[in-house]
Amino acid sequence: MPDAITVQDSQGATLSFNGVPLGYYVSISPSWSVSSTHETTSKDSLIIGRGTDARVVRQYNVSSVEPGQVVVNFIGNYDLDWFSIGRTGYLEVAWPGGYISGDGFMTDIQGNISAGELIRWSVTFKFSGYN
Amino acid sequence: MPTTPTIVADSQGTTFSFAGTTFLAKNVKMKQSVSLIDSSSLDMASGSMRRLQAAPLKDQQEVTCEYYGSTAPTIGSSGQVVCAKIGVSGDAYCESFEITAAVGELIVGNLTLKLTG
Predict the structure, then answer these.
(1) The complex's ipTM?
(2) pTM listed for this prediction
């Protein structure tokens, strides 16, 4: 009988802003993206013809890699002083098997106050440089 | 020295009525519940118990009655429900009912009410 495989879970993730540990965060979503790619037709397209016979080649544009961002979802009105559009600071995020940190600023704040539900906040922090 | 035994109330002498109709009840149940909201957060260590808290809004009190006969209440109708023996009294909506006829059995109905307040 093979041993059961245990996949890492999310518990124990930590979050701090300007060195101050935060709490009541229920999800942390770091993400990275490429803002644009080059698209060129293959060299054979003029020979094959136009329409569905033409082949478009998508090429990764290394010069336009965007810095990462982190979206954090909180429950409750935990320390609303921390949330401020455009606020700059140093964010550190650690989760089992991963870590990201850097200077950046808050670009989006969204609250959700719904009948019968917990109060929820979502904050987007964008890093200033590549990390 | 013999002690006085504790007498627990039995169910006999229970009457049940809804919207002015008295039902020949064989079983009356009252249920009150509240949902629990999970407020667990990521900083809790793996293996710890979920953190729960009562939802800010309670669930409606539910009353069910199993009765003899084929009385069919109007679905969605409202009225006073009274079953004094188990402390039920208030305005309620008829959420559902069912009537069962089975070989060799008496016809029985089953009524579900939700109290409004």
Answers:
(1) 0.73
(2) 0.73
